[in-house]
Amino acid sequence: MNIKIWLIATGCFTAFQAVAEPTCKLDLKKDPYYRLELTVSSTFCKNGNNKNDPSCKEFPKEGVVQLHGLWPNYSKGFPTGVCNVSDCPTRPTYCEYPSPPNLYESDSWKNMKGYMAGLEKCLERHEWVKHGICSPMDAPTYFEWSLTKAKQISEAVAPYVDKNISRNDFNKLVADKLPDINGAVRLKCSGQNLLSWSVFYQWGDTPQAVIPTTSGQNSFGNCKNTFRIPSK
Fold it and tell me: Which domains does the chain show, CATH number per domain?
């Protein structure tokens, strides 16, 4: 091969490799479902190991309960996106990851991005590469659906922020303000503070009906009879 042509071909191949899109192989035979995972960033940041995390610099956040991600899951394990190391380098932030296509131009992102956790470290890019591309949704739809839920939940719990809330009061809150997920909420705490909030949904082009807990009641995990949802 002519050396000039070889160099051009090699250069084109390298350029193609540099912008290769992340991929994911979803196995529908494993009965996937969606896991909506929300986080209380202030509780995350109270852990000493996270004190230098870029997202722990400024409080309060627009949403006290924020979106961590929407994860396609199997009953055992989960599908995960594959990205070239050169395109998704290991860094303190994910800001060098590929941008979720057409996300940042969308009105829903502009209006609700304050309900996304880890904006300071571009967590949305990591979530799209690892989880979002495993769903049938495009990036604007994936984040619009997820952020809408995070916003609804954050607004519903607002009266209890920085106050003690009992399990009974929490159940009443969900039944009154969030009836569509009542009996499907799964909580996890760190000490006295709420750390995460999960809801499972049936599979579809977008998340479908909620999947109740085994008991059919909201699950409090390791949360005490009374807990807090801190804002900072």
Answer: 22-228 (3.90.730.10)
Report the alpha-carbon distance of residue 193 to residue 47 in Å, rounded. Answer: 11
pLDDT tens digits for 174-227? Answer: 999 999 999 999 999 999 999 999 999 999 999 999 999 999 999 999 999 999
Question: pTM for this structure?
Answer: 0.90
Residues 86, 19: Cα–Cα separation, whole Å: 10
* Cα–Cα distance, 223 to 227 (Å, whole number): 7
Backbone angles phi, psi at 208, to 5 degrees: -105, -140
Round to the nearest angstrom and report the end-to-end CA distance of the chain: 64
